[in-house]
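To fix ideas, we give here one paired sequence and structure record:
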Amino acid sequence: DKEVRAIFLRLFAQLFQGYRSCLQLIRIHAEPVIHFHKAAFLGQRGLIENDFLTKVLNGMAFAGFVSERGPPFRACDLFDELVAFEVERIKAEEGNPPKMIKHVRELAEQLFKNENPNPHIAFQKVPRPTEGSHLRVHILPFPRINESRVQELLQEGLARSQGVPPATRGDKKCVVPAGPPVGMLICS
């Protein structure tokens, strides 16, 4: 799975190359707000007519990406290194599949090292099944239903429901008022 993740990491690094140059830090609020200038990004990359990238940039996931990755002072990770330093390498590998696969494997190894800093402590979380475990019956049989007991429970329920009058609410149903229009709330 690390290699699949490495492929997506590379894909998003290629897709978002140069995104940092289109970030704007707006300081008029109590806390600074980071804004992504989509038109500049698409124009710089010559992808204004690209519907896919436009939809990606308009999505909520990208807004979260910008708010998380936008601050100028934060810890850098493998994605930041790819976007900042590996641009030329990724471009050079586009026509050479063996080099691309080698780079994906290097990224996968780095992802593994990031998640498992102490490889000697790593262990398998789910134990392997024992020899012959597939031959054992694991499902307990469903217990037999006692027909006489079922009839007794049905009779008790019927007796209870016939003896008690149906519950009625004294509340009167009405239409919930809509309240004032939104325009009035804003003005006042």
